[in-house]
Design brief:
This protein is of the alpha/beta class and 309 residues long. It has eight helices and twelve strands.
């Protein structure tokens, strides 16, 4: 009887050891695979990427008296051409990938296409400008053109525009806005990505019914009317940044009818892996007191896109 119990115990022990060894082998193989993937640079998966999306407004030239008081009112969100020049030159020198809104959607959010080989090894960043001020076209675009020519790499600005004010310049506390012709010129050169900021910059959360739908729909249709013959891929007006950064569920419910993505102001990085809602993409606000070194620090924290093996 004791011998039979001993043999039965031995069989149970043998099964236990066999299962333990099999599990240990699986763990060992898994560890080997993880290490191999890490060494091969698999960590480039677009889902693990951190992207800074930076939001500017008007760009002023402190060497131009027309851009300064008393000839022009000063605003908290004004940023100088001189500071922007320092930041842009850093991005070009370090070979950043200037994302368009559609690049962000296709390669990182929807992930419908693999990352383009020419952008592997780069850090992605998006530079956006709200409201469609003429100062961006007059002061920022020449910087982008000049640096793109010097470094043989084209930069990109994402302009979130209110179509009602295209070409409007009435003075006072109302800043001049770019015209349709200026938007078309920047777009044809490949430097502008033109997207929606609502038709007339109304707070969308304070609208409802037909008024809300009009503000969203009219913005898109007006941008398409201005730019449509240049937009073979139908991506102009496909994305929106919310006026005042304001969003609620009522607004969010109507957005998929007109837009693919929506951009907030919450001073956070876009962490693609954590994004659960295309209409709540993080952006960082720039004020007149933001230094180029602060912007450079933000840019440095972007993920480097490595080759997927």
């Amino acid at each position: 009887m004791k011998i039979e119990k001993f043999m039965e115990t031995g069989k149970l022990l043998q099964k236990f050891l066999f299962r333990l060894l099999r599990r240990a082998k699986s763990i060992y193989l898994l560890l080997v695979l993880i290490i191999a993937l890490g060494l091969s640079g698999w960590t480039v998966e677009s889902t693990s990427v951190r992207i800074p999306i930076i939001g500017f407004h008007d760009i002023i030239d402190i060497q131009n008296p027309a851009d300064l008081p008393p000839r022009r009112l000063a605003f908290e969100t004004d940023y100088t051409k001189q500071k922007l020049s320092v930041f842009l030159e850093y991005l070009f020198k370090q070979n950043y990938w200037f994302l368009s809104s559609q690049d962000l959607y296709v390669y990182f959010i929807k992930k419908s296409q693999p990352l383009p080989p020419q952008h592997l090894g780069q850090k992605p960043i998006m530079l956006s400008f709200d409201d469609g001020y003429e100062g961006v076209h007059k002061n920022a675009l020449p910087l982008l053109e000049k640096l793109s020519f010097i470094y043989k790499e084209k930069g990109k600005f994402v302009l979130f525009v209110n179509p009602l004010f295209l070409g409007v310049d009435i003075g006072g506390d109302f800043l001049a806005h770019t015209s349709c012709e200026e938007l078309r010129a920047g777009y044809q050169k490949g430097f502008y990505d033109v997207q929606s900021h609502g038709f007339s910059h109304k707070n969308l959360t304070k609208l409802s019914g037909k008024n809300l739908e009009f503000e969203i729909a009219k913005s898109k249709s007006a941008l398409r009317k201005c730019m449509g013959d240049l937009d073979n891929n139908k991506v102009i007006g496909a994305h929106i940044a919310y006026p005042y950064g304001a969003l609620n569920r009522k607004v969010e419910k109507i957005l998929p009818k007109y837009h693919l993505t929506g951009f907030l102001y919450n001073d956070g990085y876009l962490r693609v892996k954590r994004l659960r809602n295309n209409y709540r993409i993080s952006r960082m606000t720039v004020s007149k007191d933001t230094s180029p070194s602060e912007l450079i620090y933000i840019a440095q924290r972007a993920s480097t896109l490595k080759k997927k093996e």
